[in-house]
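F.,

This is the one I mentioned.
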């Protein structure tokens, strides 16, 4: 208490000299104010700080309140300690009415921090709102007003976009989900909220440091799981939501593009709303995305010639090699459906050239080799079996480069190995010699090794 007495005394002495020029910081817009009031501010900060540091919020309260009200721009510690001090008041209050008033005071501490310190690097407005939301939800529990919570966080998301603090993003989706549970008419807004939040996390993940990565990934998984379990993601619902709206916005290119992106991300790119949006968008401004949509519609209608033409158009405009490779692969699939094996392989090879880590084209080539084995050597049952060497070569390559197809490739390798010529068959066949190369005939025309 000696420091308290000394500072109070000092405040009185200096206050006499500067009293005529006194002005509170809250009135002057300066950190400490001026004259006697600036001394008063410094004194109160000096008095509450050691109490608050030691968790003695009871003795800190009076001096903190004066600093908080009179010189709120003095320093950020006013707010760091403020949430703890007001939190302590709430924890020790038994009167429900007073407790509710203190909750408002606590939220006000966050709001005032935004006003005076909301532009500090790393701890800007969105960061503060995220912690405000966290404190509110933890303290209010089931009594939280999710409309109010949603409003706070939407303001942060709208202002900061992809750079929004991840805690704010997490609670934004929590609030939006709670609104959906209470009111099914919030479904469309919830879907848009998810897309916006997911895009922000994806953007931050793409530039995250090793230290940030784990936390971002955890939040992203939680976000995705929450959306998947929300009941808002089924394609039938999206069709009912967007079917008529696509027609109403058929000349609105921006809307059509957003809808196409939404439905693709939701894996609802086989519904009428997606096809209609792609068709209208393609008329206004052809893109790889719209061409892909029209191609899928042509596949559904079994118009394979048109589908191939549209997939080629999509590939020609596509800038993402992984997507372009998929376009080529789909042309290969359609060509296979038409029994045009040479063209199918040609486009599979283009897909591999575009994306060397893509296993599906190798898988398709191997399946085509196996499917046509009997047509290559119709009069030689032993040579027919050598075609499976070439087929398993492709499956093996797919397994090496692409983990996503490794399991299927392994099963096919095991299955087709059983079709290899036996040791006796190789011995009795003059053209075959184990360990030597052989060129498979017909449309395949590829060298492989006799096992």
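My design for it:
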């Amino acid at each position: 208490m000696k420091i308290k007495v000394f500072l109070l005394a000092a405040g009185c002495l200096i206050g006499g000299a500067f009293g005529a020029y006194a002005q509170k910081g809250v009135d002057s817009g300066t950190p400490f104010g001026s004259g006697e009031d600036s001394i008063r501010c410094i004194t109160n900060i000096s008095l509450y700080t050691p109490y608050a540091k030691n968790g003695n919020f009871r003795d800190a309260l009076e001096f903190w309140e004066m600093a908080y009200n009179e010189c709120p721009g003095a320093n950020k510690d006013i707010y760091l300690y403020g949430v703890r001090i007001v939190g302590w008041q709430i924890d020790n209050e038994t009167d429900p009415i007073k407790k509710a008033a203190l909750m408002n005071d606590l939220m006000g501490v966050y709001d005032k921090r935004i006003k005076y310190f909301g532009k500090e690097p790393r701890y800007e407005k969105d960061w503060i709102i995220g912690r405000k939301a966290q404190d509110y939800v933890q303290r209010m529990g089931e009594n939280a007003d999710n409309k109010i919570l949603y409003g706070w966080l939407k303001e942060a998301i709208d202002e900061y976009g992809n750079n929004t603090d991840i805690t704010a993003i997490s609670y934004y989706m929590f609030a939006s989900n709670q609104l959906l549970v209470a009111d099914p008419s919030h479904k469309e807004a919830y879907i848009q909220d998810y897309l916006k939040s997911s895009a922000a996390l994806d953007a931050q993940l793409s530039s995250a440091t090793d230290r940030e990565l784990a936390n971002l990934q955890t939040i992203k998984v939680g976000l995705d799981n929450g959306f998947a379990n929300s009941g808002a993601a089924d394609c039938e619902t999206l069709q009912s939501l967007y079917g008529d709206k696509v027609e109403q916005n058929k000349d609105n290119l921006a809307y059509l593009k957003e809808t196409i992106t939404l439905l693709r991300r939701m894996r609802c790119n086989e519904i009428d709303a997606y096809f209609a949006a792609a068709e209208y968008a393609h008329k206004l401004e052809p893109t790889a995305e719209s061409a892909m949509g029209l191609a899928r519609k042509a596949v559904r209608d079994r118009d394979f010639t048109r589908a191939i033409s549209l997939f080629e158009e999509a590939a020609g405009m596509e800038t993402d090699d992984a997507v372009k490779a998929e376009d080529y692969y789909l042309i290969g699939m359609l060509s296979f459906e038409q029994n045009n094996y040479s063209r199918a392989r040609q486009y599979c090879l283009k897909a591999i050239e575009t994306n060397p880590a893509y296993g599906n084209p190798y898988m398709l080539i191997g399946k085509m080799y196996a499917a046509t084995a009997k047509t290559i050597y119709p009069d030689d049952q032993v040579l027919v079996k050598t075609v499976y060497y070439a087929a398993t070569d492709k499956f093996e390559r797919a397994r090496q480069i692409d983990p996503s197809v490794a399991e299927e490739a392994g099963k096919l390798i095991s299955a087709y190995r059983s079709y290899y010529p036996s040791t006796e068959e190789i011995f009795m066949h003059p053209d075959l010699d184990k360990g030597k190369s052989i060129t498979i005939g017909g449309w395949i025309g590829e060298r492989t090794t006799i096992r």
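Strands lie at 119-120, 123-124, 437-440, 446-449.

Talk soon.
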